[in-house]
Write a structure and sequence with these properties.
Low-confidence stretches of chain B: none
Largest sheet of chain A: 6 strands, mixed
Strand order of the largest sheet of chain B: 5-6-4-3-2-8-7
Low-confidence stretches of chain A: 85-93
Number of helices of chain B: 0
Number of strands of chain A: 7
Structural class of chain B: mainly beta
Number of strands of chain B: 8
Largest sheet of chain B: 7 strands, mixed
Order of helices and strands of chain B: EEEEEEEE
Strand order of the largest sheet of chain A: 5-4-3-2-7-6
Helix content of chain B: under 10%
Strand content of chain A: 35-45%
Shape of chain A: globular
Oligomer: heterodimer
Order of helices and strands of chain A: EEEEEEE
Mean pLDDT of chain B: 94
Mean pLDDT of chain A: 82
Largest interface: A-B, 25 and 25 residues
Distance between the termini of chain A: 35 Å
Radius of gyration of chain A: 14 Å
């Protein structure tokens, strides 16, 4: 278990899942907001191909505010409609 | 426009606002709960006098608050960078 204050390199390579256990990808890098002195978003690599339309692939950023928790993996909020195939959201949304 | 990729900071030189080189960046300490960047973890230059600074083994810690700007170098405020 990673404690609250951690070296940023510990994040690299962690798997990212939504809170509905959908694999999103792997942490490739972190975008920092220098003025705000905080992590702005995670850059996702090894993207789950079923989540995105590869033709429009521009990489994926996960804003820090949708991160639920970080430990051995990263759990983010499940956003229906955020991903190309709507299969992962609630039906009808 | 002060967004920067964390990996791009690796091995960047840290200088004070007076132009003195402190060392090279080793890592960053972050708070996963709040997303706040807390400290710079630095390998100090052998010539740098680390007295008055927070150290742990061969590493030197400077609060991220001291960072003035990051371009080719990481510029830190001399006074804010001490403990």
């Amino acid at each position: 278990m990673i404690t609250m204050k951690t070296q940023i390199t510990e994040l690299f390579g962690l798997n990212i899942y939504t809170e509905k256990s959908v694999f999103v990808g792997e942490v490739e890098d972190v975008i920092l907001d220098i003025e705000g002195k905080k992590m702005e978003s995670l850059v996702v690599g090894k993207l789950n191909q079923e989540l995105v339309d590869i033709k429009n692939y521009k990489g994926l950023k996960v804003p820090f505010r949708i991160i639920r928790s970080i430990g051995d993996i990263v759990i983010i909020r499940h956003l229906p409609g955020a991903f190309k195939s709507g299969d992962f959201g609630e039906a009808g949304k | 426009m002060s967004r920067v990729l964390a990996r791009s900071l690796s091995k960047k030189k840290i200088v004070t606002n007076e132009g003195k080189v402190i060392g090279t960046l080793k890592n960053l300490v972050v708070d996963f709960e709040t997303g706040q960047v807390v400290d710079l973890v630095i390998y100090p230059d052998p010539s740098f006098d680390t007295s008055g600074y927070r150290t742990e083994g061969d590493r030197l810690y400077i609060p991220f608050e001291a960072v003035k700007d990051i371009k080719d170098y990481i510029v830190v405020d001399r006074y804010l960078s001490r403990k």
